[in-house]
Design brief:
This protein has 446 residues and is mainly alpha-helical. It has helices at 41-55, 63-76, 111-114, 120-135, 138-148, 158-164, 180-187, 191-207, 215-222, 240-258, 271-288, 292-305, 310-322, 332-338, 341-345, 352-361, 363-386, 391-403, 407-420, 427-442, and strands spanning 88-92, 99-101, 106-110. It has a three-stranded mixed sheet, sandwiched between helices.
Length: 446
């Protein structure tokens, strides 16, 4: 989907849990809070955000997933003490891992976040954390704090929203309807409020009878950074995730010393199976967003969970093909280079012609490209062994063979794809590629 292609212009990690705002001594208010006249606009703006999500087609509506999220959220959420708060749990189609809460009780989870979770207990910790942002009026507290610093305008600029969502163009026009508090809810609160939300979440998880021993592992999952771009964020240099893992482990150890309640549950064993279609879709969206390393990592995890799943092998093949001249695992030198803010902003997907030029000029890049393409072909082959009717694997295999210069084989695979999938939306594109391959064969390019 084209709407994700501009994600390559920003870093991977856009996670409330991992990117808190500036230091502050602010504390939440877990009692009714009457909004001042100028703060009533927060509710209107939150409502407008919800409408925009629907208009842009970003709401994820798969009933089994959404119902589970809502069921767990409803189990954990307290009775609202303010008339303007109504807890609503939604899932957004977005491959980057993120979760955030708005002042009126709207809580959003990205599909990319759900794709990483291992069980319901981790999901309960994530939801409990966001619930505390609402229950503690953290958006309002943060908004009032920034007002005291004489912020001239409460309207977030288009550039700020674009940066917060990784260049996600659907959100550019929200600049005129989202103010400072809503913006803060999206990109993070102060470190104090984040820690407060974490610590209070433990009690909510316990009350919901979920296993609190899974809480630290949620943040351990968040520490994975396969693209090496976390450093481009203003607060990314703070070791907040390791610190959170540490203090949550201390809290859990204290609870264990007092005796873990027997009724605590992790959730049923089918959690990852229910998340599998969403996770497979996330792999392809990460590829389209030019995060092939992250896509490959998730795809390998899906393959390990079910070696006989043809679509998992196909997803892994797509990620490997998208690596181009990159290694699957980032090295320390490249991590340092990519971490440079200016280089990350210039990070864009290369066109096919640009890749060809680089391959000719750089023998090392050419070797890596060939290695990745051959690895991808092996995964396409495995996918087709498991499901010979998987047309998308034929298409991907054809593209990989084409890039390797094996034009006759490439033409056969792409022609096979067209025959197998005559109604494909990319039929015209594939046929045009076939014409190019035919020309290359006629000219003796093979």
């Amino acid at each position: 989907m084209a709407r994700y292609e501009r994600f390559a212009r920003c870093g991977l990690v856009l996670i409330l849990l991992a990117a808190p705002g500036p230091p502050s001594a602010a504390e939440g208010v877990y009692a009714p809070v009457e909004l001042k006249k100028r703060e009533q606009a927060l509710l209107e703006m939150s409502d407008e955000f919800a409408k925009q999500v629907v208009r842009r087609g970003l709401r994820y509506d798969e009933p089994e997933i959404v119902d589970m999220v809502r069921e767990i959220g409803d189990r954990l959420a307290p009775e609202p003490e303010d008339a303007y708060v109504d807890y609503r749990f939604q899932v957004i189609r977005h491959p980057l891992p993120n979760a955030f809460a708005l002042p009126d009780g709207q809580i959003y989870l990205h599909t990319g976040m759900l794709a990483l979770l291992e069980n319901e207990a981790q999901l309960s910790m994530l939801l409990a954390h966001e619930i505390n942002h609402v229950a503690g009026h953290h958006s309002v507290v943060g908004f009032r704090s920034t007002r005291k610093k004489a912020i001239a305008s409460i309207v977030v600029s288009a550039a700020a929203v674009a940066a917060a969502y990784g260049g996600h163009t659907e959100y550019l026009d929200l600049a005129n309807v989202i103010n400072q508090a809503v913006y803060m809810a999206m990109i993070g609160y102060s470190r104090d409020l984040e820690e407060e939300a974490d610590r209070r979440a433990i009690d909510r998880v316990l009350d919901g009878e979920y296993d609190v021993r899974q809480a630290p592992s949620l943040f351990e999952l968040m520490q994975e950074d396969h693209e090496g771009e976390r450093l481009i964020f203003k607060w990314g240099t703070h070791p907040t995730l390791p610190a959170r893992v540490a203090y949550l482990k201390e809290m859990v150890a204290r609870i264990e010393s007092e005796g873990i309640p027997e009724k605590l549950r992790t959730g049923d064993e089918g959690f990852r199976s229910r998340m599998r279609p969403l996770a497979l879709e996330t792999v392809h969206e990460l590829v389209r967003a030019d995060y092939p390393r992250t896509a490959a990592h998730l795809a390998r995890r899906l393959v390990s969970e079910d070696e006989a799943d043809a679509r998992a092998h196909h997803a892994l093949a797509e990620a490997l093909r998208a690596l181009d001249a990159r290694t699957e695992t980032i090295g320390p030198e490249e991590r340092a280079r990519v971490g440079n803010r200016k280089r990350a902003k210039r990070r864009v997907k290369l066109t096919r012609e640009q890749r060809e030029q680089r391959r000719l000029k750089d023998p090392a890049a050419a070797a890596l490209i060939e290695q990745n393409l051959n690895a991808a072909i092996r995964e396409y082959d495995r996918a087709l062994e498991l499901d010979e009717g998987l047309a998308e694997a034929c298409r991907g295999r054809g593209y990989a063979l084409d890039e390797l210069g094996r034009y006759e084989e490439a033409g056969q695979e792409l022609a096979r794809y067209v025959r197998m999938h005559p109604e494909a939306s990319d039929r015209k594109v594939v046929i045009e590629r076939l014409r190019g391959i035919s020309a290359a064969i006629r000219n003796g390019a093979d």
